[in-house]
Amino acid sequence: MCGIVGYVGNKNAQDFLISGLKRLEYRGYDSAGIVTLNGKGRATLLKVKGKISGLETKVAKNKTTDKIGIGHTRWATHGEPSELNAHPHKSGKIYLVHNGIIENYKELKAKLKSSHKFVSETDTEVLVALVNHFYSDGKYPLSNAVVQALKLVHGTYGIAVVSELNPNEIVVARSGSPLVIGIGNNETLIASDASALVGHTKKAIYLNDGEVATVTADSIEIKTLNSQPVSAKVEAIQTDLSAIQKGGYDHFLLKEIMEQPSSLTETLRGRINREEHLVHLGGPKLSDEELKSIKHLIIVGCGTAYHAGVLASYYIEQFTPDISIEPVMASEYRYRHAHVPENSVALIVSQSGETADTLACLRDLKAQGVKTIGIINAIGSTIAREVDGGTYIHAGPEISVASTKAFTSQAVAMIMFGLTVAEAKGVKNSLLAPYIDEIANLPKAIEKLLKNAPESVKNLAKRYKKYDHAIFLGRDVAYPIALEGALKLKEISYIDANAYPAGELKHGPLALVDDRFFEFVFLPENNLYDKTVSGIQEVLARGGHVIVITDADDFSLPVESVVKITTKMKIFTPILMNLVAQLFAYYITVAKNYNVDQPRNLAKSVTVE
Ligand code: AGP
To answer: Residues enclosing ligand 1, CB less than 6 A?
Structure first.
């Protein structure tokens, strides 16, 4: 997704725009730009291909004292990353930044060709030309022109618009892409994510879909597209500055891996009664009767969130005898004609709470009358505000594109939800107690692993950085860990890593084993241990370069590398093993000198299809 910022007030607009874009750069970072207005008819438009640092250099050479402006950091959808395609886009006296996709931009562009000379390949330039068409150089209020234009648009947008003819107001609007209005002293700040407002204000208004706001330094007027006034709900921004800074680590990714003892502690806070072996989640807003009646659980997510759902499904099945569980990839599920059985509940899993595919599934399931429960990290996010109920995972802001602490907290939060269902269904406490005890001990177990593992994993990673291909293997509860480990490695080191259930090897993937590959095997000491050992032997017999992560004391096969996990955990060792895979991906990427926190082609939150 792209990052949007805006400023109108009594301070230097360029300063906030640049600092805000740097906070949002993790959300999309292939090009960037800002425009500021001096209020006397001069606009300073600066754009770059590449990182915000390049824009910062340009701003330093074109410093202004302007007090109003907008900015954007881009994750390209229409048109390659280039200075020409970077936002803000201009038409007449109007400048516009946009996050989303205008699906009918081609037909709109055809109608505007006579009145606007197009210079970029973007759908956004079509939108600014359409606004200008209705603005007709200031004959009509800017907000009216924006509304008229948006009524013709199909697709998603989060936009900020300024005009040289009205240099004291910013018009913002959203449908499907988030926008937050920060309320300051004689200043109003705009951002696509509250993290850009931290340190500037504690008060924010989260715009809703279909709303348009006109903001000045000291006023905010919100209306619907049908000109119905909206009374704004001012909310507190709960993030503090330290949560969005590296805190002494080289990268956000390492910080977020290492802070999992505390982030998981926050996920559990107030939700586990160890003495009575009970779990309590207030957010889902489901009565015991409703919990008891659940027969089918759909778990919806993308990427890491999906993997967390797969992992949770394996565990929940172990202690809820009469529930079928269906983890689904949102991008696929939204277009399926899946039958949703009676007594279904849907867990909607998303770290950012803005992922377009997941949001689309949420809306479809709600339309079918399915109760939706959010498992979300970003407070106040779109999904968090649209689910029927939910559990915030409270893992703190996750800045690095590769999701790590959110996975652990999402999986545990879903397992806790499953435990509340089991409790409501009268499942014996003696069956649930071991799960609850281990969950309560998990932060400590993670802390112990993170104290002992990093150095050995760092040395291991250096030995495998030259490979271009990898196979990740696991069975049962270790299979979703293999999926997640492969995703982590591929998305930051660009090694072609793919995961397979260990039992599937002989059905095809075994043909891949040769010196181009290494194999990363998760081997928990559980009822399937021997089966997975057989799989390892199949790979060794074909000359595989095998790395094994295990908690077993007696593992002795002649593999290339073993990472031994010493722990009292018996049930949730796969969650500990996942941290080894996170560290492995991190250290390989550092060894390859790639961009750990902002890998190529990706963005932190994908608010477009
Ligand atoms: C995971 O490391 C990736 N960044 C990506 O797969 C991510 O998990 C996915 O886009 C879902 O994001 P969400 O949790 O914010 O919905």
So the answer is: 302-305, 350-352, 355, 358, 401-403, 487, 491, 605-606
Q: Give the whole-angstrom CA distance, residue 475 versus residue 459.
A: 26
Query: pLDDT band for position 503 (50/70/90)?
Result: very high
Pick the closest to residue 313 from 417, 218, 234 (CA basis): 417
Pairwise CA distance, residues 25 & 19, whole Å: 10
Tens digits of residue pLDDT in 402-412? 999 999 999 99
Q: One fold for both 252-451 and 453-609?
A: yes
Q: Mean of the pLDDT values across residues 200-216?
A: 95
| Percent with pLDDT over 70 in the chain | 100
Beta strands 371-376 and 389-392 are parallel
Nearest to 89, CA basis, from 137, 35, 15: 35
For the domain made up of 453-609, the CATH class stated in words is alpha beta
**CATH T-level topology, domain 3-243:** Glutamine Phosphoribosylpyrophosphate, subunit 1, domain 1 (3.60.20)
The pLDDT of 445-462, averaged and rounded, is 95
Domain ranges of the chain: 3-243, 252-451, 453-609
Q: Is the pLDDT of residue 241 over 80?
A: no
Q: Tell whether the model's pLDDT for residue 124 goes beyond 90.
A: yes
Pairing of strands 296-301, 278-279: unpaired
Instruction: Tell the CATH superfamily of the 252-451 domain.
Output: Glucose-6-phosphate isomerase like protein; domain 1 (3.40.50.10490)
Q: Is 604 a catalytic residue?
A: yes
**Using CA atoms, how far apart are residues 514 and 510, in angstroms rounded to an integer?**
9
Contacts for 221 with CB less than 8 Å, ≥ 6 apart? 213, 214, 215, 229
Pocket residue to mutate for ligand 1, from 192, 195, 304, 331, most atoms within 8 A of Cβ: 304
Residue 438 is encoded by which pair of tokens? 């281990």
Model pTM score: 0.84
Q: What is the mean pLDDT of residues 428-453?
A: 96
Give the closest residue to 193 by CA, choosing from 385, 204, 52, 598: 204
pLDDT at 274: 87
- Catalytic (active site) residue 361: no
User: Contact, 73 vs 3, CB < 8 A?
Assistant: yes
